[in-house]
């Protein structure tokens, strides 16, 4: 039997491993169990899988000591352009004079490398990779997971961090509201002729959003962006099968030539788009974080940031409870986490769902109304600032770890 830890984190992805590191900064120990092979997740090469890290999420990384590792790999977002089919009436979001950027873009590989390196150096984290869980146990006295090789890992609190299809959530019998958008996001890395000028583009077409996210240039000076292109499920297979030349022609058509020639495209991947939100995010000695608790459309790039807000909140709640002498799995602590995160995550989920449906309405009249609305927002500084604060994650009741 392995030594007992405070937390048993099931899922060692970006959110789960960040939780382990943030908890360790407060003296909270963790078992982290993940079925993936870290070497495969950190393979060389840029495949387009990237994440936008908001201002608040960057504060979290800085406060747990990851900023120095990550900053050399960050591409700052100088502005965000939102447009309906590249027609007049777009919104341009720009940072306040005291803010260096609206956020940072990272290749997911770089985020994983930084997290994994830090986890290997942290004595309070016991990392069990390439591990299969065959049993989960929770009772009044603690939690445990039995691995396929017979090891039994024990802790005071179980964390479900396995993502959208969380088996821990299913095992706990937590109900979930969900629906399928019948769309698929196609992801690829692009190399292009002209610089992106650190602008993140969200271009809305009736079939779905078409996002171009700025990435750092290559060492040889080639300009790069990450593409997230939403297509209907019925068109996805055909789009993925296009040859590089035909695929790039379709991409260039939707970009309106803003980056000049698209010189190459990396490996393409895709995932189905859907919405889900759990009825609750806690159970007996159990807390859900990240996509195990809420899955949203990538339309505003808030999925990972929402999970990192879960991390900051849960760590603050547990740390305060321990300082009061409470058991880390105490129901009072979990109830506070539920109250703090439940409404915020639900409102963000509803907002992204509403945007998805609003911009999916076809027709010239609908497009004209949307563009008129965006033009009005562009002319209203206070409303525009509110949208920017939401995107940066700095509104509402933030935990200390997410404050600058």
From TrEMBL:
Leader sequence residues: none
Cofactor: FAD
Pathway: Cofactor biosynthesis; ubiquinone biosynthesis
GO molecular function annotation: FAD binding; monooxygenase activity; oxidoreductase activity, acting on paired donors, with incorporation or reduction of molecular oxygen
Superkingdom per UniProt: Bacteria
The keyword Cell inner membrane appears for this protein: no
Every FAD-binding domain range: 6-339
Gene Ontology cellular-component annotations: ubiquinone biosynthesis complex
Gene3D superfamilies in alphabetical order: FAD/NAD(P)-binding domain
Keyword Cytoplasm on entry: no
GO biological process: ubiquinone biosynthetic process
Keywords, ordered alphabetically: FAD, Flavoprotein, Monooxygenase, Oxidoreductase, Ubiquinone
Record family assignment: Belongs to the UbiH/COQ6 family.
PANTHER family: UBIQUINONE BIOSYNTHESIS MONOOXYGENASE COQ6, MITOCHONDRIAL
Protein's recorded name: Ubiquinone biosynthesis protein UbiH
Lineage: Bacteria, Pseudomonadati, Pseudomonadota, Alphaproteobacteria, Sphingomonadales
């Amino acid at each position: 039997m392995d030594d007992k830890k405070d937390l048993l984190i099931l899922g060692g992805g970006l959110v789960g491993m960040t939780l382990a590191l943030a908890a360790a900064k407060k003296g909270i120990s963790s078992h982290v169990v993940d079925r993936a092979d870290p070497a495969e997740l950190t393979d060389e090469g840029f495949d387009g899988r990237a994440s936008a890290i908001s201002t608040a999420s960057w504060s979290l990384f800085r406060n747990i000591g990851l900023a120095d590792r990550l900053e050399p790999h960050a591409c700052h977002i100088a502005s965000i352009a939102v447009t309906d089919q590249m027609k007049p009436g777009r919104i341009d979001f720009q940072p306040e004079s005291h803010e260096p950027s609206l956020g940072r873009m990272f290749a997911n590989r770089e985020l994983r490398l930084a997290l994994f390196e830090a986890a290997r150096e942290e004595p309070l984290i016991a990392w069990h990779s390439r591990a299969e869980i065959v049993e989960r146990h929770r009772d009044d006295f603690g939690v445990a997971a039995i691995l396929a090789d017979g090891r039994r890992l024990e802790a005071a609190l179980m964390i479900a961090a396995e993502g959208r299809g969380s088996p821990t959530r299913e095992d706990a019998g937590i109900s979930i509201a969900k629906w399928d958008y019948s769309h698929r996001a196609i992801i690829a890395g692009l190399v292009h002729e002209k610089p992106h000028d650190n602008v993140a583009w969200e271009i809305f077409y009736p079939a779905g959003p078409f996002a171009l996210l700025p990435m750092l240039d290559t060492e040889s000076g080639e300009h790069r962006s990450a593409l997230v292109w939403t297509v209907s499920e019925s068109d996805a297979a055909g789009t993925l099968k296009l040859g590089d030349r035909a695929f790039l022609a379709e991409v260039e058509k939707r970009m309106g030539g803003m980056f000049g020639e698209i010189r190459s495209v990396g490996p393409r991947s895709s995932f189905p788009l859907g919405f889900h939100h759990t009825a609750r995010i806690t159970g007996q000695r159990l807390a859900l974080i990240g996509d195990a608790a809420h899955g949203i459309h990538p339309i505003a790039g808030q999925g990972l940031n929402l999970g990192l807000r879960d991390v900051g909140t849960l760590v603050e709640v547990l740390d305060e409870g321990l300082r009061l002498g409470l058991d880390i799995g105490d129901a009072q602590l979990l109830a506070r986490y539920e109250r703090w995160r439940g409404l915020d995550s639900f409102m963000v989920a509803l907002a992204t769902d509403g945007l998805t449906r609003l911009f999916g309405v076809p027709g010239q009249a609908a497009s004209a109304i949307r563009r008129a609305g965006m033009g009005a927002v562009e002319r209203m500084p206070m409303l525009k600032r509110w949208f920017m604060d939401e995107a940066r994650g700095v509104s509402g009741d933030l935990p200390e770890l997410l404050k600058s």
